[in-house]
Amino acid sequence: MLRRTGRVVAAAIAAACVFSVVSCSSDDSGSSDSSAVDESGVKASGDPIKIGLFNPSQGPAPQPGVTTGKDAAVNYINNSLGGLNGRPIEVVDCGVDQTAPESTIACANQLVQGGVVAAVDAYNSESQSAMPILTSAQIPLVGQIPFNTATGASPENRVFFGPPPAAFLVGFMQSLKAAGKSSLTLANADLPQAHQVFDGLLVPLGKQLGIDVKAVYYPPTGPNFTALATTLAEGNPDAAGLMTSPNDNTCTKLAQEMRSVGYQGTIFLAACTEFIQTMGSQAVGAQTYSPFWQPPAIDSTPEPAKANLQIAEKYINDEDGTPDFFAYGTFSILVNMANGLNKAGVTDFTGPNVLNGLKGLTDFESFMGPTGLTCNKPTTPNCTTEMLLFEVTADKTQTPVGDGFITPSPDVLKLIPGAA
């Protein structure tokens, strides 16, 4: 989880999958605790505009942060931002099982029947299963990072405000190379999408960048942390850890065990932040990635991203839910979509108009960074390739490696379909 102190988290690359069934509900507002209009805000009114949400909320390994972020974003958009051209949004929330494509297919059909004008991909690793249905119905898919590599390989009928999965891999390994490090071992749950990213991207990219990369897998139900830490530390690689994580608790427990087994290299912990608070000085030296600024690095965050980050945390904490990566990520997607459509001047909310409005964005400033997004690229659905790499530099403090956003090598990204 993140701190509740007024200070965000993000990103990931392939997602640990969850197990469940489909469920759908409709929610046109956030929680009732903070529905009052901000003094400086504008309350939306009129007929709501329906937005669909593929929410990995079901099964034994759900992502409750998605619901937290969704509720917080709806509250902010409707009660402070002024909605979409003055009208409120209503989120049609559909729970998916990321290990069962049929659940995403069922949700896609329900969202079409529900009359949504766009569907949000809340880090669903089975998102490609929805694309034929959404494309046929002219409903665009909008997200931040395509956790499904097939979804990220084509720009058709989709827009992602963040970088492609490969950008995080390339950016991190570029940083390792610059620091004189040449070996990396990363773990993920033993699931098809993990193998697709690790075996299909991680190892080949390592060869391209001169990094000796090894991938290890743990059972989808969760790792034996001592055994996994021991395996990651074998051979004393320069860096080791998690490229993705199902939750903050997994990062914290693994980091603690890696310290216990005596690993002294760079511990890499995906987009987690809770370990920074829990481990204190023992977390110093660990690194994480993000597509936008996050709370432990608040002192390094430039304006206006800093003020926006504090707004996001306020609304997320008001929900009293799970303030993790998925909460801030979902909040970011919805707010960027609202700001983007308002900037584009969309007034007639249909699927094609929403897609054209978002695809037409150039030099767009995302809510919590980066700036200069361009969403009309012919070869990729992603509006940027920039990413942040953070290092814990002091007790409970992160700073960006390289002082800000990293641009992964375009020449390397061009080798990957949809990445550039």
From TrEMBL:
InterPro entries named among the record's database cross-references: BCAA_transport, Leu-bd, Peripla_BP_I
Keyword Ribonucleoprotein: no
Origin superkingdom: Bacteria
Signal listed as a keyword: yes
Residues covered by the Leucine-binding protein domain: 48-394
Gene3D superfamilies: 3.40.50.2300
Alphabetic keyword roster: Signal
Signal peptide annotation: 1-25
PANTHER family (UniProt xref): LEUCINE-SPECIFIC-BINDING PROTEIN, PERIPLASMIC BINDING PROTEIN OF ABC TRANSPORTER FOR NATURAL AMINO ACIDS
Family statement: Belongs to the leucine-binding protein family.
Protein name according to UniProt: Putative ABC transporter substrate-binding protein
Species assigned in the record: Gordonia rhizosphera NBRC 16068
